Structure formats: C-alpha cells, structure tokens
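Re: beginner question about structure tokens

> Can someone show what the tokenized structure looks like for a real chain? I only ever see the sequence side.

Sure, here's an example I had lying around. Input first:
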Amino acid sequence: MYIDFDDVNKCNFVKATFTTKELDMSLLDDRKKLCKDLNFNFDNLTYNKQVHGNDVTIVGVNNIGNIEEADGIITNIADVPIMVFVADCVSIAFIDIENKVIGCAHAGWRGTYKEISSIIINKMKTIFKSKVENIKCIIGPAIGSCCYEVSYDLVEKFNTKFTNSNESLYIIKDEKYYLDLFKINEFILMKNGIKRENIFNSNLCTYCNENTFHSYRRENTTSKRMAMVMQIL
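And the corresponding structure tokens:
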C-alpha cells in the first residue's frame, strides 16, 4: 500500500512515503486512511491545486491546510504532512538534513521543462538557508522512457533547453520518441548542486507496473491518483 523511503533518507526527523494503487489519493477517505496508518496529522495535511507550473507554496503557521494553485510545496513545521498527487508525472521529495526543511514537487513534462526543482532548491536556500550539500532528494515512481511516447517536437524542445546534458534525454524505438523524465530531473537536481549520491531515483515506471500503480495514460486519463507524502515528525 505504501513505498516507504526510511532506508533512503536515513533521517529520523522526517518520514516520506509514496502510495500505491490500493489507495486513491483523490478520495478524502483514502487520505484519512493514509494519515491514520502512518500516524500523520490529517488535520494539518496540506497540498496544492496542481496546474503543471513551477509555483511553490511555503507552508507556515498561518496557511496550514490552505489549497493554492502551485506544483511545489515546502515547510519546516513539524506535524504538517505535505503532499503532491501523481498518476504518471514525476514526484520529487527534498530533505534538508541540517535545517530540517522538507519539500515536494509535482513535475510532469511541463513542470520538468519549467524546472520546478530549481525553484524549490532556490527557495530552500534563500528562505530557509539550506545548503545544497545537505539536501537529499527522492524521485518517486513515474512513467518511464520505456513507455512515455512523445512527439519529435517535444523532444527537440527539451534538447534545445538542456543542451548541457551529457546524456541523451530520450530514446528512439521503432521510429518513435520516448522522453526520459527520470534522467532529465536528475540532471536538473545535479545542475543545482545536489550531490549524485544524495539523489535516490526509484526508476519505477507507473505505466509498466499495472498491478502497483495508477497510470493516467494506461487507464485512459483516470482521475485516480497516487501521492508523495512527507511529514517532519
């Protein structure tokens, strides 16, 4: 029901988890169940209305539980779970192990292209005085390059923007193009100074793993969602 990242982040002050298709996080009852199962504070659960952009919400004592139009969320307040919804898009967790700050990003191709991870890292640095060498990142399950067929124009759009990448950002199969959102988001994190050893990439494809994950593409634009959820304990 949950993929826990305790062995990855190895931080006793935060818990990060990713839900499977046994729950539909678009449903209130399933969000309550998650919080009960993981001992998260449901009353403080905070998430955004996601719009495929790169705006980031800072959660302080005065806006806990508010729903804003944004695709990133950051807090340094204990007992406040933060969450992003996904069903093929990339979710990324950020953990400042020194200053005890956490963040989440929802990054489909638009959010990835707009570098929402760069925005989150910069806000953690400027607002919370985080140092990039102290930030650990977890990339959750998402549609992989094995399945994420896109147009040639979209591939070229990414190639033009990320010309400094030393790796191919896509693969070609049977004259079709498949974008690698995992690899692109890794590149963005490292471009911002995140150490390679501080990036955990699940590399789990939501489209391939039909028994484990919902998939927007596979399930014909399903409304069902998984979520990356984090809380400072």
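Each token stands for a local structural state, so reading them left to right follows the chain. The chain has six helices and 14 strands.
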